[in-house]
Write a structure and sequence with these properties.
The chain is mainly β. It is built from 3 helices and 9 strands, in the order ββαβββββαββα.
Length: 181
């Protein structure tokens, strides 16, 4: 994790405690797209591993009101070591001029031609209704591993179908690789 340094050097810095670790759950986005981030949450004695993947568009499109669809995958472990979770939390965030998935939020995950998940993912009650839509769901770790390590992974969400590129799949594989085996 990268911490920002103060602009002035404090001669007592060696005796002062380090700043608290930021709580990952309250972040709006993972800092670097495509690269897994592992964070220790000391106050919860928990490690969180997560990755952000842009399925459609990129970060700059958000402020330009272009279509952007992000996938965040995250799992948590008690203690300092990342261990295989029972469930993987996934989140889809859509940015567009008007809501794209408000009426059709069916999600299908396909790994090497096999459907591993097909469900309606309703928006949370607090969805903003503006240009951003949020959808959260969980899948079992074995299904996540199949999807992350598939030779051909496809995500269908509403009317949008995306075949993951090598880079997208690599991001999910790299997240899976954070697990201490």
């Amino acid at each position: 994790m990268l911490l920002a340094a103060s602009s002035s050097f404090d001669t007592h810095a060696q005796t002062t405690p380090p700043p608290p670790v930021k709580d990952v759950e309250k972040r709006e986005k993972v800092e670097v797209a495509g690269k897994p981030e592992v964070t220790w949450l000391e106050h919860r004695e928990m490690t969180v591993a997560s990755v952000l993947v842009y399925l459609v568009g990129e970060w700059s499109g958000i402020r330009d009101s272009k279509d952007v669809l992000q996938l965040v995958a995250r799992f948590r472990s008690k203690g300092r070591k990342v261990v295989q979770p029972a469930q993987v939390e996934l989140g889809l965030t859509s940015y567009s001029e008007k809501p794209k998935y408000a009426t059709d939020h069916k999600l299908t995950l396909i790994a090497d031609g096999q459907t591993i998940l097909s469900q309606d993912v309703p928006p949370p009650a607090d969805n903003s209704g503006g240009n951003a839509e949020y959808y959260r769901f969980s899948i079992g770790y074995p299904d996540f591993a199949k999807f992350a390590n598939a030779n051909r992974a496809v995500l269908k969400f509403g009317a949008t179908a995306i075949e993951l590129t090598r880079e997208m799949s690599k991001s999910l594989k790299d997240l899976d690789a954070t697990i201490g085996r």
